[in-house]
Amino acid sequence: TRKLIILTDPGQDQAAAILMILGAPAAFEVLGLVATAGNIDLRHTVANCLKLLELADRPDIPVFAGCPRPLTRDLVTAVHVHGPTGLDGPDLPEPVIEASPVHGVDFIIDTLRKAEPGTVTICSLSPLTNLAMALVKAPDIAPRVHEIVAMAGAYFEVGNITPSAEFNVYVDPEAARIVLDAGIPTTLLPLDVTHEMLSTRARLDAMRALGNRCGVATAEMLEFSESFDLGKYGWDGAPLHGPCVPAYMLDPTIFSGRHVNVSVELAGTLTQGMTVADWWGITDRPRNAFWVRDGDADRYFALLLECLGQLP
Ligand code: BDR
């Protein structure tokens, strides 16, 4: 069983990822959710984390509020995609549980210091602000992390929030650079692969047909956020980003990629937040990440449905 700290700013696709994780209890033990400012402000991402845990009937999992903004920049949100609550679509239960009073950054540090070295995986679905803050505050935690698996970046599929940058890196590029430079084994699930994972009508119908409240709510959430992406891309379905992270951890054979150097553009006037992957090994910069480029969408959605089907 992998012990996970989940960094998240849900977001419908991330809701699907969190529920997928909760639907695989033999594979994952969730130590806590760290709510991040990103798709929407921190107040809403905390509330959305709590709502998802109520939905999945997992009030035992703690939620920690992280930093209210990126390290050096003003927050850019994506409420145009996710709606005014950040998690529009179904009527989700108002949470009875409350967030922990402990700060998300301190939770990351304390958890990694207490756990056996190499036993905790950081599962990042969001901007990397809180992990970067933790690494700055407590550099001793870096060698204690087993692995970072993050939905972040884009190279072959360029950008989604600007022509050259993926949202999670664009929101806090300094944080992404700190994390990539920390010497921790890292796998990135960029738009290159998530753009292959299209939530087509048939796949959403199959999700709804699971009939359980988590399956139906996930289908309703994705239908909401789809409407934005369908207009934008003109594809047969919207790319389903977040669940690529748990899917990779559950079955890496669904995916393929390459160990490369990934550097983050901080200063470019047109390319801020771009993740430059040295795919052909042109530089002598160190290989700091496994860059996932492709995946099998049918196997991905089958695994997602299998996990969602285990939930209430
Ligand atoms: C990422 O951006 C957010 O809007 C999604 O939730 C996902 O984490 C995709 O670029």
Task: Furnish the topology, listing elements before pairings.
Elements: E1 2-8, H1 12-22, E2 28-35, H2 42-55, E3 63-65, H3 79-82, H4 104-114, E4 120-124, H5 129-137, E5 145-151, H6 167-171, H7 173-180, E6 186-189, H8 191-194, E7 198-200, H9 201-208, H10 213-233, E8 237-239, H11 244-250, E9 255-260, E10 262-264, E11 275-277, E12 289-295, H12 297-308
Parallel strand pairs: 1-2, 1-4, 2-3, 4-5, 5-6, 6-12
Antiparallel strand pairs: 7-8, 9-12, 10-11
The protein binds beta-D-ribofuranose.
Overview of the molecule:
It comes from Aquibium carbonis. The protein has 312 residues and is α/β, with parallel strands linked by helices. Helices cover 37% and strands 19% of the residues. Strands 3-2-1-4-5-6-12-9 form an eight-stranded mixed sheet, sandwiched between helices. The model has no long low-confidence stretch (mean pLDDT 97). It binds beta-D-ribofuranose.
Key words describing this protein structure:
alpha/beta; eight-stranded mixed sheet; 12 helices; globular; 312 residues; two-stranded antiparallel ribbon; binds beta-D-ribofuranose; single chain; 19% strand
Measured distance between first and last alpha carbons: 21 Å
Extended strand count? 12
Q: What is the strand content?
A: 15-25%
The unique ligands bound to this protein are: beta-D-ribofuranose
Shape: globular
Radius of gyration (CA) equals: 18 Å
Order of helices and strands: EHEHEHHEHEHHEHEHHEHEEEEH
Residues in helix, %: 25-40%
Question: What structural category arises from helix and sheet content?
Answer: alpha/beta
Protein name: Nucleoside hydrolase
GO molecular function: purine nucleosidase activity
GO biological process, one term: purine nucleoside catabolic process
Pfam families: IU_nuc_hydro (PF01156)
